[in-house]
Design goal:
The complex is a heterodimer of chains A (about 350) and B (about 220).
Chain A: E1 2-13, E2 16-28, E3 33-38, H1 44-51, E4 59-64, E5 67-68, H2 74-81, E6 84-87, H3 99-110, H4 114-127, H5 143-155, E7 161-165, H6 173-190, E8 193-197, H7 201-207, E9 210-215, E10 218-224, H8 225-229, H9 235-240, E11 251-256, H10 263-270, E12 274-285, E13 288-298, H11 302-311, E14 315-318, E15 352-354
Parallel strand pairs in A: 3-8, 3-9, 6-7, 7-8
Antiparallel strand pairs in A: 1-2, 1-4, 4-5, 9-10, 11-13, 11-14, 12-13, 14-15
Helix pairs in contact in A: 3-4, 3-5, 4-5, 5-6
Chain B: H1 3-41, H2 51-66, H3 69-75, H4 77-84, H5 90-114, H6 118-126, H7 131-142, H8 144-162, H9 173-182, H10 187-216
The chains are: A alpha/beta (about 350), B mainly alpha (about 220).
The structure holds adenosine-5'-triphosphate (ATP) and magnesium ion (MG).
């Protein structure tokens, strides 16, 4: 539904060049909710704004619903944008218009007639549960209500795609949940494809089907959530299941969809090992339960026990044994490339992984 | 001078001031509003970026604002003759008044429009709105409270400028105060004239504030 390839965006800021996107490829399938995660300044907003060409990419192509937007002229682009909804962190409503007037705005832009317009507005406000606020001004609404107006407005053109840049980060937890539920509903009932940016893990857990993790203008990893969590060295798994910093020799076991199997006690029974559990977390993500355990495994049959766990289909990652100086709070990737870890500390030792 | 003598003089002068201010306000808006919009949209990162045009317009506005009104009034006499057909009288004063106030108003329009968030403008762009739609349906309506406040300040400035219109035979309250009060030592008339001016300015400011506040409430 959304295809981005080779996307680069370089900002020129008083002679200095800022590479906000450094060759990004992204594929969002029809009907999915796709989350983009990453630290501040990673380029998430730039990526989103390149999808509807609010920002002109320096290089690369963007296609939405089969149309290559980067190839369109200005008038065609404006028309294409009418089929792409967008919601904003700070709502970006027109304060001089009522709720109904705000929702009518995109319809006016599209040249929809007055009678049809008011019919559509009523329908959209009904959809987001704000039928009774049609005559209110944005200044008289709560944050959650404002975002509902934003969503109704974004849906006015019957878009196939909805873009959302931190649409819930200005809202309190309860309101966030109700907005997420609304988005999930729209996704399910209208088949709306949603590309959203967030820094809140519970948004990812709650509604995303797929995720891309960005860093320094690049996509570090992307794919279905369950698949990503099961991938060695996954940033997403580290973010979803915050565990204490690993000590050398610790083992992290990641499991998806088999939370109820007693693997740890099995291992202790079958092999001559001792297991102490250092930390663990269990989450319901993308409809499956997944979890991570950080354990210390000691004993003569340690290697055999680890292979057994890997054979059972669990992801077993060992923290590097020789960590020079710094705390080992990140793992190396499977390919052994040294890279920056979660708290910005660099891991220098090799990683051993068994699958 | 008795009250009976002062009455008609005051009445006539107030009428002349009102005439000058109303007409010049109208033309100031017609000239200054597009100029203010142009200053905003031609700026870097604006809807129609054009650095050169922006620089030229900025220069024109600054020149207009730095000329003392009394100098401007004399300097535009040829233009006044061209437009009004005469260079003296109440209508003739409307030309320099407009030219003096329009750059001032344009800057206030610019300031008011810049108050409209980038977010709001980009949201409209994301909905496929074109430049003119954004100017007409987003920028101007969203800035309307600031625009009214700017217009109020401009009208008050015009009332004050119009006091100098006596120089080209424009008449008005300021002219009355100078001719009778100052040159003929009619202190009472001068004081009364000044009071009338103060009352008018107060009325304009209060009305403008009330409207601006009403518009800002939403
Ligand atoms: N208009 C701009 N001009 C210059 N540099 C910019 C501009 N917009 C973004 N950048 C730079 O591009 C980089 C990516 O910015 P972007 O806003 O996409 O980050 P982000 O991932 O959305 O961050 P956040 O989580 O804080 O919103 C940053 O280094 C930022 O400073
Ligand atoms: Mg951002």
């Amino acid at each position: 539904m959304i295809d981005v390839s080779g996307l680069r965006k370089v900002y020129r800021d008083r002679g200095r060049e800022v590479v906000a996107l450094d060759g990004v490829d992204l594929h969002v399938s029809e009907g999915e909710i796709f989350g983009v995660l990453g630290q501040s300044g990673a380029g998430k907003s730039t990526l989103l704004r390149c999808v509807n060409l609010l920002e002109r990419p320096t290089a690369g192509t963007v296609s939405v619903a089969g149309r290559e937007l980067t190839a369109l002229g200005e008038a065609d682009l404006r028309r294409a944008r009418q089929g792409i909804g967008m919601i904003h962190q700070h709502f970006a409503l027109l304060s001089s218009r009522t709720v109904a007037g705000n929702v009518a705005f995109p319809l006016e832009v599209m040249g929809v007639g007055r009678a049809e317009r008011s019919r559509r507005v009523a329908e959209l406000l009904e959809l987001v549960g704000l039928a009774d606020k049609a005559g209110a001004y944005p200044g008289q609404l709560s944050g959650g209500q404002k975002q509902r107006v934003g969503i109704a407005r974004a849906l006015a053109g019957n878009p196939s795609v909805l873009l959302s840049d931190e649409a819930t980060s200005a809202l309190d937890p309860g309101t966030t949940q109700s907005i997420l539920a609304l988005l999930k509903n729209l996704n399910r009932e209208l088949g709306l494809t949603i590309l959203l940016i967030t820094h809140e893990m519970h948004v990812v857990k709650g509604i995303c089907d797929s995720v891309a993790v960005m860093r320094d203008g690049l996509i570090e990893e992307s794919g279905g959530i369950a698949e990503l969590i099961a991938r060695p060295g996954s940033r997403l798994a580290a973010e979803l299941f915050p565990l204490p910093a690993p000590e050398p020799g610790n083992v992290t076991i990641t499991f998806t969809g088999r939370a109820d199997e007693p693997v740890v006690s099995e291992v202790v029974r079958k092999f001559d090992v001792d297991v102490s559990i250092l930390g663990g977390a269990l989450e319901e993500v993308a409809g499956v339960s997944a979890g991570r355990l950080r354990v210390r495994l000691t004993g003569d049959e340690r290697a055999a026990a680890l292979s057994y766990l890997a054979e059972r289909g669990l992801l077993v990652e060992e923290a590097p044994v020789s960590v020079r100086g710094e705390r080992a709070d990140a793992y190396n990737r499977a390919d052994g490339n040294s890279r920056t870890g979660g708290n910005g500390t660099s891991v220098t030792g090799p990683a051993k992984e068994t699958r | 001078m008795t009250w009976d003598e002062m009455g008609p003089l005051l009445w006539e002068s107030t009428g002349q001031t009102a005439l000058m201010v109303v007409w010049s306000t109208l033309f100031t808006v017609l000239l200054g509003l597009p100029l203010g919009v142009a200053l905003v949209v031609t700026d870097r990162g604006g809807l129609l970026p054009s650095p050169l045009l922006n620089r030229v317009l900025g220069l024109i506005v600054n020149v207009g604002r730095s000329l003392p009104f009394i100098v401007l009034m004399i300097a535009v006499i040829p233009l006044t003759r061209l437009i009004v057909g005469t260079t003296i009288g109440t209508f003739a004063a409307v030309v320099p008044l407009t030219l003096g106030a329009a750059p001032f108003f344009a800057r206030l329009v610019e300031t008011a429009l810049r108050e409209v968030g980038r977010d709001t403008v980009q949201a409209a762009q994301a909905m496929g709105a074109g430049r003119w739609t954004i100017i007409g349906k987003v920028l101007l309506p969203e800035a309307r409270s600031g625009l009214v406040a700017g217009l109020t300040v401009t009208v008050v400035a015009l009332i004050s400028y119009s006091a100098m219109a006596g120089v080209i035979g424009g008449g008005g309250l300021g002219d009355l105060a100078i001719r009778y009060g100052y040159q003929r030592f009619e202190t009472t008339l001068m004081v009364v004239t000044v009071i009338v001016l103060i009352v008018i300015v107060q009325l304009v400011q209060t009305l403008g504030d009330a409207i601006a506040r009403r518009l800002a409430r939403h």
